[in-house]
Design brief:
The chain has about 900 residues and is α+β, with helices and mostly antiparallel strands. It has 31 helices and 16 strands. It is elongated and about 110 Å long.
Amino acid sequence: MKKQVPQNKKEKQGKKDWIDTNPIKEEYLRWLFVIISTIACFSIIGWVITKIYNPDIAAIIAATEKVALGVGGIHPEPHESLLYKIGLLFIPFMLLGFYWLSKKDFLAKYFKQPKSVNVLTIVISVALLLGIYLMFSAANPNYVGANAVGANEHDSIAKTNFEFYFLNLFIDSQFYVYLFIFFPLILTAFFLIFRQQNFDKQKLIHKIFSISTWIIFGLLMLIIISISCFEFPYTWQNKLDFDAIYYSVTQVYAGNGMLIDGLTNTYGLYPSLLNPIFKVIGLSIYKFTLVMTICIVLSYFFQAFFINKYLKNKFLFLLGVLLMLFMSYFDNKLHAAFDPFFSVAAIRSLTFSALLFGSVFYIKRKSNALFYTISIIQAVLTLWNPEIGLVSFVAWIALLIYVHFYTEAGKINYKGILKRVAISIVLLILTYIAYIFIIKIIYGQYPDILGLFNVAYAFASLSVYLIPMTLIHPWLLFVLINIIGLLYSIVQLYNKNITSKSSAIFLLSILAAGLFSYYSGRSHNWTLLSFSAITIMLLTLLVDELWIQVQQSKLLAFKIIFSISIFILAIGLVETVGDNTKLTQLVKNTKKDKSIQLEEELRIKENQKFIVNNTRKGETIFLLTSIKYQVLLLDANKNRSGAHPGFFEMTLKSQVAEYAKTIRDSSFKMFIEPGYFYYPQYAPLCASMASSYQFASTSNTICLLKKRPLKPAYKSIILETNSSDSKVAHEVFQDNKEGLAKRADWALGKNPVKLGKVFTAEVVFEPATQIYNYPAIMGNQKDSAGFGIIYSNQPNLYYFSIAGQNVPITVAPAKMYYIAAVVNEKNLKIFVNGNQVAFYTMPKDYIESGMPLYIGNLENLRYYLGYIGEASITKQEVSAEEISKRWMSLQSFN
């Protein structure tokens, strides 16, 4: 133990580590008391909340279903959300409060001259190891089994959390080799190499480890570069994720403005901020992925640079960097189909990584120039990515409060803190105002700035895409590390001994707490890994501090805790070495993925060529295709989409309704892949398309549609019935906006109807080329129940389907037709243009289908393209004379 510094000499001595001013054992027990008390207190609060807070989950889901699509599932998490917010607000104060309490005489005496410290440590260490074992051996909460459809492929085989993170990797296949051979060797080497307490005597060793780490870091970055730069996304997951990232980039490049006319982005306004670069170098998939890859490399460089500046032991630098890269990036790539996943490693991580890089210089110099520079950059990065950008901005303000907490006289620096916080917030507001006016100048419209937070709204308020959180899970270990980091920085603050390292640890602790919000909502193992870098960096810095105490004291407790920490940190080194072949194989896997999906790529490129040949560069079009193909086809000729947001960004039913309205009211060319645009949540788009568009041409799997010429005002020929009881449905579809809207509404189906054994179905329509299989003009058929008037997929041939019987109806194109089907208990009569063309004996009784009644569609993907003027169903037999009379009225209309 170092010699204690007298109180009156502290200021001359300068800042010291906490160990210099507190007996080691006493402070160690005090920390245990604070941590255990905080966890126990919060656990009690959590238990009480779950008992007294009983929100109506069903009501929340019902309210959400009214406004949200709910494609990713609606899983309200009011308890998790409340507990997380309470934790953010109260755990730091709990730590401070219990530490303050531990310094009071009535408690402090129990920490002096402690007995059985080692026994206590062993008990706690065993409990910790048992807890870690239970966390990783617990069932993977998202395990779905091998036969699941549409699930994450790794969740179909990883039954436990340990398997999810390490299945088929070195730690999994050679765990006992790691436990009994490699880990003891690493730990022993650590104690042997760094047994000297004097850092200066080991400068050469630390320099070697530092240089080696940067070399390995560079090699791993080369792997990232090679797999992240591509000319075409090669797996289905890659295509899906890539659309979410690239769609808005293409639209901004083509001339649309972010947050104008519904153009939003799941991840922020980076398309606007990057657009000047692409205007200079041009835009292509390869150029975009190159820019994103640069962002990934910069992010990881900033993170490595940060911890390197605050680590005394450079072997820990090696362990920390390798574990950080392995867990936050490569583990995903080794377990799932290749997917660069730019949303985290490039876009989100750049916000806090830039803060880490800038804070290194600010913590050291605290200059006004750096303060304004970092504040402005962080404000801009909240536009770049709002969800994590705001977390980073709050962390920046928290760091300012921490490093400027005291004046030189040791008083609380109220004035300095308020000044810097106020200026930072003003700069944030001015940044948003500047963006609003820049967009107004460029595009002539003010952006809907609230649209920047659509994703946060979908997560937080609507509970869309959330995944339930389980209690026994490795996230508990992340929280424990974060609590220790907070306690370390709070103790330094309490003792008025704020150092550069305590500031760095405080910043990481605040970031880790903020980033945990993402996992608390979408609680998937991949999510925990995605933001694990900050927690790993925090652990590395804490272990570096612990190593100082291990060298300065003979306390067994420190050695045990240090050994457990090294066991965790060394995993990155062992995996990098043990799975080096798999890491380098990632580069080859991209070529393999490319060859596997070559047929699909050729089909997409042929469709791209079709769009290029039928549009001008930058022309506005509608494109209805698979979500994962949308951006690939729009990018072909840098086309602008006729409506926004993109399919990936649509979370609200109001957005779908606005998109459908735009299709009805506009006349842009429409390209559609009917076999791939099959999403029930987007049915209104298909309904609007079918009501107002007609076939133009086709190539491969894609069709070109053009706006259907509207007909003059249509007058009803089907008279209202005398008895309202006999009327089931009667609609006239005028060829105007209102009529097309009504037609689209009927294509989505109305309430189920019961027709009985006697009814007449009538429709006025015009035959046209179709794009769907067996499109229906009208009906409620399901199997042999119900009825339908359906196109047979053969030119000029329709049929009336009922009770398992298909009655053929021959027509000619580009001509108005009036079809009436009269059904009773015994027979079926079909009339075409006033003339009876068929008489059938009913093969069996009519069976009610219980299905909604559709006009211009039948359930899903049976949309009828073409003119439908009128449709009616009545529970009575209409006479042949009346049918002929109605046909004569139609002829006069023609």
